[in-house]
TrEMBL record, chain A:
<dbReference type="Pfam" id="PF07885">
    <property type="entry name" value="Ion_trans_2"/>
</dbReference>
<dbReference type="GO" id="GO:0022841">
    <property type="term" value="F:potassium ion leak channel activity"/>
</dbReference>
<dbReference type="InterPro" id="IPR003280">
    <property type="entry name" value="2pore_dom_K_chnl"/>
</dbReference>
<keyword id="KW-1133">Transmembrane helix</keyword>
<feature type="domain" description="Potassium channel">
    <location>
        <begin position="20"/>
        <end position="78"/>
    </location>
</feature>
<dbReference type="InterPro" id="IPR013099">
    <property type="entry name" value="K_chnl_dom"/>
</dbReference>
<feature type="transmembrane region" description="Helical">
    <location>
        <begin position="101"/>
        <end position="122"/>
    </location>
</feature>
<feature type="transmembrane region" description="Helical">
    <location>
        <begin position="134"/>
        <end position="152"/>
    </location>
</feature>
<keyword id="KW-0812">Transmembrane</keyword>
From TrEMBL, chain B:
<feature type="transmembrane region" description="Helical">
    <location>
        <begin position="155"/>
        <end position="177"/>
    </location>
</feature>
<dbReference type="InterPro" id="IPR013099">
    <property type="entry name" value="K_chnl_dom"/>
</dbReference>
<feature type="transmembrane region" description="Helical">
    <location>
        <begin position="222"/>
        <end position="244"/>
    </location>
</feature>
<feature type="domain" description="Potassium channel">
    <location>
        <begin position="167"/>
        <end position="244"/>
    </location>
</feature>
<dbReference type="GO" id="GO:0030322">
    <property type="term" value="P:stabilization of membrane potential"/>
</dbReference>
<keyword id="KW-0472">Membrane</keyword>
<feature type="transmembrane region" description="Helical">
    <location>
        <begin position="189"/>
        <end position="207"/>
    </location>
</feature>
<dbReference type="GO" id="GO:0022841">
    <property type="term" value="F:potassium ion leak channel activity"/>
</dbReference>
<keyword id="KW-0406">Ion transport</keyword>
Length: 226, 245
């Protein structure tokens, strides 16, 4: 039992036979680095050597802010694209906010389909999970909770293409960026809507509104993760 | 450029971790294999497939949170205290995973719980952070009045707050952990950092050792530490990002 536990902690999967692919080869370590930097932290795999643990701490110290800055940039860039889209439809005051709401709604639905509804299908097919389990995994991952009870690419009885985990990592990054953008735009819109409600219909306000559009928010409004 | 730095950073981490962890993994795998064959060889009544099934069962049990190294399997991890700690690990997005819902209803509840709990947690952390910031600024203003320093007071207070926070949240708790959990200082520090950054691997979790007795205040104090430590760390990261920009 003790040997089993020890092996499990070091990343060896005792369920397979002796020709298991390593859990610490480059592709899987890349995936692991991604889970550290995004603070998902599954934990099914974690450094067991002292050097590895210390490295992990300092790696995360610089990696987590880097990840936040990256997601922030991605979110801002996507937001800018959304704004140019909005500018095609120029309508004053209330109608513009309505228009923005519709665009946001479309954006939300596409994103939900792409990141929350569709991937579980892929996962349940590749991993042999039920759709519910796939959805549970998707949600726990994108919220960066990352329990680690379900992790892609860890079943020793299945054959995965070598880049499977890396592709999943890319999906995670984009999913997180989408979530960050949703929060950003949502908070932005809420602010504008509240402003519009407090100051009644006013022509000077419409001009003030368009200048607000071009202003970039002062502080990064990314709140995930913390 | 940021994209390139990001991917490069991931690659760097991957390479280093691979170099550090792979040898240990290989060694452990060989050890396991030797033990496996020895067991089968020494006890001829034991058969390969049966042993394999047992191993799978053990791994499943381990995954669902049962500790196996005592005489009896330790139950009662989903008592109120354990479940409370689980709720904390969920809404703070730490997500240890040593304990996770296995029933379908439990999982659905977990998802809904997190959906509302995470924003709630963020709002609370923000508030705590603001309070801390106000406290620091208050002290800085006090110092300015008393000592007639201008910009230096605020800088001094911020460094002071940083150092106090560092001591309180990262450097001193590992001592408590080594006393109560029997970890080394380095393991305690590793656990503190992984928890406060919300990465939360779950390879180390407090209060999970069935051979130890914990005082009744232990888990509550740790929960408070997690809350304030996360708020402090979030402030620090915000400052770092501001300075970078």
């Amino acid at each position: 039992l003790q040997v089993l536990m020890e092996a499990w902690e070091k990343g060896v999967n005792p369920e397979g036979n002796s020709t298991n692919p390593s859990n610490w080869d480059f592709s899987n370590s890349f995936f692991f680095a991604g889970t550290v930097v995004t603070t998902i932290g599954y934990g099914n795999l974690s450094p067991s050597t002292v050097a590895g643990q210390i490295f992990c701490v300092f790696y995360a110290l610089f990696g987590v802010p880097l990840n936040l800055a990256f997601l922030n940039q991605l979110g801002k860039a996507l937001n800018a694209h959304l704004l140019t889209l909005e500018r095609w439809v120029q309508k004053p005051g209330r109608a513009q906010v309505k228009c923005q709401f519709t665009i946001l709604a479309i954006f939300l639905t596409t994103g939900t389909l792409l990141f929350l509804v569709f991937p579980p299908l892929v996962f349940s097919y590749v991993e042999g999970w039920s759709y519910g389990e796939g959805f549970y995994f998707t949600f726990i991952t994108l919220s960066t909770i990352g329990f680690g009870d379900y992790v892609v690419g860890t079943n020793p009885n299945k054959h995965y293409i070598p880049v499977y985990r890396s592709l999943t990592a890319i999906w995670i990054v984009f999913g997180l960026a989408w979530l960050a953008l949703v929060f950003n735009v949502g908070a932005d819109l809420m602010e504008r809507y509240l402003q519009l409600k407090w100051h009644k219909s006013d022509l000077s306000l419409a001009e003030g509104d368009t200048t607000k559009l071009e202003d970039e928010p002062e502080q990064p409004r990314i709140h995930i993760p913390s | 450029v940021l994209l390139a730095a990001y991917v490069g950073y991931l690659g760097l981490g991957a390479a280093v971790l691979q170099a550090l962890e792979r040898p240990a993994e290989v060694q452990a795998a060989q050890h396991l294999l030797r033990e496996h064959w020895e067991l089968l060889a020494n006890h001829t009544c034991l058969q390969g497939p049966a042993l394999q099934r047992l191993i799978e069962g053990i791994i499943q049990a381990y995954k669902s949170g049962i500790t196996l190294q005592g005489n009896t399997t330790s139950l009662g991890r989903w008592d109120f205290s354990g479940s409370f700690f689980f709720s904390i690990s969920t809404i703070t997005t730490i997500g240890y995973g040593n304990l996770s819902p296995s029933t379908a209803t439990g999982r659905i509840f977990c998802i809904v719980f997190a959906l509302f709990g995470i924003p709630l947690n963020l709002v609370l952390l923000n508030e705590i952070g603001q309070l801390m910031l106000l406290g620091v600024q208050h002290c800085a203003r006090h110092l300015e009045v008393v000592c007639h320093w201008q910009n230096k007071a605020s800088f001094l207070m911020k460094t002071c707050a940083l150092v106090t926070g560092l001591l309180l949240f990262l450097l001193l708790p590992p001592l408590l952990f080594s006393d109560k959990e029997g970890w080394s200082y380095e393991e305690g520090f590793y656990y503190s950092f992984i928890t406060l950054s919300t990465i939360g691997f779950g390879d180390y979790v407090i209060g999970m050792n069935p051979d130890r007795t914990y005082p009744s205040w232990y888990k509550n104090v740790i929960s408070l530490w997690i809350l304030f430590g996360m708020a402090w760390l979030a402030l620090v990261i915000k400052f770092c990002i501001n300075i970078l920009e």
